[in-house]
Structure formats: structure tokens, C-alpha cells
Amino acid sequence: MNNSQVNRIKDTAFKFFAIACTFFGLLVLAVLLYDILSKGLTRIDLDFITNLPSRRAASAGIYTALLGMIWILVLTVIIAFPIGIAAGIYLEEYGKRNRFANFIEINIANLAGVPSIIYGILGLELFGRILGLGNSILTGSLTLSLLVLPLIIVSTREAIKAVPKSIREAAYGLGATKWQTIYSIVLPSSFGGILTGLILAISRAVGETAPLIVIGALVYVPFAPTNPMDEFTVLTIQIFNWVTRPQAGFVTNAAAAIIILLLFTFMMNGIAVILRNRYNKKTRF
Questions:
Q1: Is the dihedral of CA 93, 152, 199, 264 positive or negative?
Q2: What whole-number distance in Å separates Cα of residue 193 and Cα of residue 18?
Q3: Structural domain contains residue 258
Q4: How far is CA 95 from CA 42, 92, 98, 229, in A?
Q5: Is residue 163 part of a domain?
Q6: How many independent structural domains does the chain possess?
Q7: For the segment 132-176, what is each residue's pLDDT rounded down to a tens digit?
Q8: Which residues cross the membrane (predicted)?
């Protein structure tokens, strides 16, 4: 048996293993979704969305958790998105290529893999205690902003790298300054890739629970937050609270809340994908 035959056997075995793992993963996902949908769909109605939390499963709702999650996500995007894009532009377009720049780039990439609970400890000490923000929505948003910043910075840099140099050179040839070229040519051309980073950042922020628990997010909040300094809870913490209850009704509530969370995530990602595809069509090279 020669080397080419051995390589073909290895490739076939690898493809078979990949297909088997994919099929097994899809099967597990299908079973999980069926279990969640069969338990939770019957519980979803207007009362479930608009009711406050309750110790009685039949009257408990997700209103406070849903509003808290929306507050957290909106503030996180407002804080992290401009800072992440600005940092990506600076590192790619203005930063000097030296050892310090390489050190910064390596650490930004490493920060994306840091466990989220570490960010929670950092947010608790820096924002909650030193800055005196307590366990407020603003503390949670700032903490999640630190968590998703590496994703936004890396994706922004990669999107900017994908813009051909010939376009920049053409802009310079017409007399545009560096900032005019970046603002009018590079950013619009790379905005689809930047939105991809935002999709990943939102998807990670939506599912985070550990850092919010560390900074002091409450499990039971009997009021809806009205400003960034209010105490809060989010849907993932509410789900965690319900699944730990022994009553079967709370398990049903948790399944319904998971469905709402999935729909919210799909909606946010769908909007971002539509915007990304629209910008990609306008700026296709």
C-alpha cells in the first residue's frame, strides 16, 4: 500500500468521523429542541411575557428579566461597538508595527478566550466597588462590554484587512487624506465584516450568566428597571432560577423562557445578517 492510498484512507476516515459527529450533534440538538418546544410552547402567551416574577409558577412571568436583558444588550452595544471599532481602526491603520504592537495584538486575541467569570470579578471590583456603581445595569453592561471587546476588535481588523489596497491607493491618488479614505472608503467597504463581529459579540453577551451573577445581578426582581442605575436580572438568570425549583410548573416556565431567548437571539442575528448582506452587495469587489 503506497502513500497515496494511505492518505485516501485517512481522508475517508476523517470525513466519515466528521459526518458522524455532525449527525450526532444534530440529533442531540433536535432532541433538546423537541423537549423544550413540547414543554414550553403551551406556556407562552401575553401574560407570561408581561407578568412580574412570582412564587407561583402559574402566574410567574419574564417581564422584568426581558427588560433587564434588553437594557443590558443595548448599553453593551452602545459602549463596546464604537470603542471596539475605533481600537480596530487604530491598530490596523495607524498603529506602528513593532514589538509593543505585537504584544498588544497577542493579548487581545488571548482575551477572547478568558473565562467569562474572570470578567465578572474584574467588573465587580472595578465598576461595582471602585467606581461605586453597585449591582446596577450599567455595571453589567460595562462588564459585558469588556467581555465582547476582543471579538469586535479582532473582527474589525480582519474586515479592514480584506479591503484591497488598490482602493486606498486610488483614494490617495484623488487627493483624499488618510482619514477621509478610512471614513469614506474603508469603513463602508468593511462594514459587513464588522457587523459579523457584532453578531458574534451579541450572541455571546446574550448567553452570559456567570459574570452577571458575580457582579450581583438579582435572581428575583419584583420591579421593571427604568434607568441604568437600577438593579436588574436577565433572562438567563431567570431560567437558571426556575430550573433549580422542584415544582414541575417552573420547569415548564424555564422551557418557555428558553424559547423566548432563542427567538430573541435569532431576531437580533437575523437583523445583523440582513444588514451585513446589504452592505456586502453594495461593496462587492
A1: negative
A2: 28
A3: no
A4: 55, 6, 9, 36
A5: yes
A6: 1
A7: 888 899 999 999 999 999 889 888 888 888 888 888 888 888 888
A8: 12-34, 62-91, 103-122, 142-160, 181-202, 250-275
CA distance 194 to 191: 5
Grid cell, residue 237, equals 438568570
**Secondary structure (DSSP) of 127-148:** IIIIS---SBHHHHHHHHHHHH
Range of the domain at 206: 67-232
Cell numbers 472608503 label which residue?
A: 185
Task: For residues 253 and 271, give the distance between their C-alpha atoms in angstroms, rounded to a whole number.
Answer: 27
Report the DSSP beta bridge partners of residue 231: 136
Residue 82 lies in a domain: yes
DSSP-derived letter for residue 185 is I
User: Which residues contact residue 83 at a Cβ distance below 8 angstroms, ignoring those fewer than 6 apart?
Assistant: 145, 149
pLDDT for 205-242, tens place per residue? 888 888 888 888 877 788 888 899 988 889 888 888 88
CA–CA–CA angle 15, 17, 22 (5° rounding)? 95
Written as one letter, the residue type at 95 is G
What's this model's pTM, rounded to 2 decimal places?
0.83
Q: Shortest CA distance to 89 belongs to which of 151, 173, 155?
A: 155
Phi/psi at 162 (5° precision): -75, -15
Nearest to 80 by CA among 117, 115, 111, 103: 111
Q: Which of 187, 283, 252, 276 is nearest to 41 (CA)?
A: 252
Do 281 and 189 touch, CB atoms closer than 8 A? no
Distance CA 145, CA 80 (A): 5
116, 147 in Cβ contact below 8 A?
A: yes
Whether residue 208 is contained in a domain is answered as yes
The span from the CA of 212 to the CA of 136, in Å, is: 10
Any idea what the CATH number is for the domain that residue 217 is in? 1.10.3720.10
Q: Measure the CA–CA gap between 266 and 1, rounded to whole angstroms.
A: 50
